[in-house]
Amino acid sequence: MRRPATRRAFLGGLSVLAATPALGGPRPKVVVIGGGFGGGTAARALHRLGLDVTLVEPSRTYCACPGSNAALVGLRPLAGQVFDYVGFARVGIGVVHEWAVGIDASARRVRLSGGTDLAYDRLIVSPGVEMRLDAIPGYDCAASAAMPHAWKAGPQTADLARRLAAMEDGGLVVITVPDNLYRCPPGPYERACLIADYLKARKPRSKILILDAKDVFSKQPLFEEAWAARYPQHLEYVPKSRGGTLVEVDAAGLTLRAGGGAFRAAVASVIPPQRAPEICRAAGLTDATGWCPVDPLTFESRRVPGVHVIGDAAIAGAMPKSAFSANAQAKVCAQAVADLLQDRAPDIPKLINVCYSLVAPERAVSIAGVYGIEWAALVAIPESAGISPVGASEDLRIREAALGDAWFRTITAEVFG
């Protein structure tokens, strides 16, 4: 039987985590690995809860993935995606700009690339995803430079944007989409929409081809509606059932071979299968899927006690791998960590995810879900779900784009200050 969620538990899906009274005695130490939307949120929430927090993040800046598809086609500056960690240190959160290279769970220590280590009472791991460059024949590190996935926003985003701008009119752009699970399920289709719009306006004899390793995807009716209405001459979609699964690439020849044939691209963006990063695998946090199973009540690892995994690396049941999900999970996890360190039973949470996708400049569609725990797993609560209606007015699409932009400003201000 499911215990009713309390008000505090429901805060996992809201933008502000209420602080609890400061913990008495020496403050327990919590180390957070990863400074993205999950790790950054967790560090701030733990600090507000009175814990001694150290954030381990090798980069001094963070380039946000939400909004990066718009940056590809010049709808927003890539510099507007970049944030730093100055605000964390300003409020008293320790920040260590080194790689976490090992976890000794028995000794409760994190080994750093500089040769030192950090002790912890509880550890939160939020390292994002790792691209599986061994999963597609021909697609290795060198090939990813020629066919950038740009699925970690930053230099590859800028490179893909340059390639699109330099492409001659009449060229073919190919995007490949992996099977589930991967970061940001609707992201490839948003990217295809925005590139199609760019081609329609600036290189009208060009088109974009989507090769997909599956037949069903997030927001599918909404994207298909946009493709038919806006880009019938500039976008072609090939699902798994029609040979869309990528089989092999020839990076030197910019050729992609799928079940349905071979395609010579002027620009190719190959989004490979993904998994939890090496730090998770080396620590024994992953299972045969390549991801990290967790207890949805606390996000504590089901394999390594005392270590919690949030965000893209975690197996979070029905919750998608998104920035909104990572932010919500971080708040629930932070509260659970504080409870466990005080020998309190954590509340049963409900979590929220909302996702906005652009289908054209200043036009967006959205989907929202609420997730609860049943049979020791996070499941979607159907009556709480919401999705943009097919056939909606342009006014609604414009409002949803504005809401998505407001969400991005809000979450980045909350996390990075």
TrEMBL record:
Domain Flavocytochrome c sulphide dehydrogenase flavin-binding, first and last residues per copy: 349-416
The record places domain Sulfide dehydrogenase [flavocytochrome c] flavoprotein chain central at 157-272
This protein's UniProt keywords:
FAD, Flavoprotein, Signal
Range of residues in the leader sequence: 1-24
Task: List, alphabetically, the PROSITE patterns matched.
Answer: TAT
Gene3D superfamilies the record matches: FAD/NAD(P)-binding domain, Flavocytochrome c sulphide dehydrogenase, flavin-binding domain
**Which InterPro entries does its entry note?**
FAD/NAD-bd_sf, FAD/NAD-binding_dom, FAD/NAD-linked_Rdtase_dimer_sf, FCSD_central, FlavoCytC_S_DH_flav-bd, FlavoCytC_S_DH_flav-bd_sf, SQRD, TAT_signal
- One Pfam family of this chain: Pyr_redox_2
Every copy of the FAD/NAD(P)-binding domain together lies at 29-139
What is this protein's record name? Cytochrome C
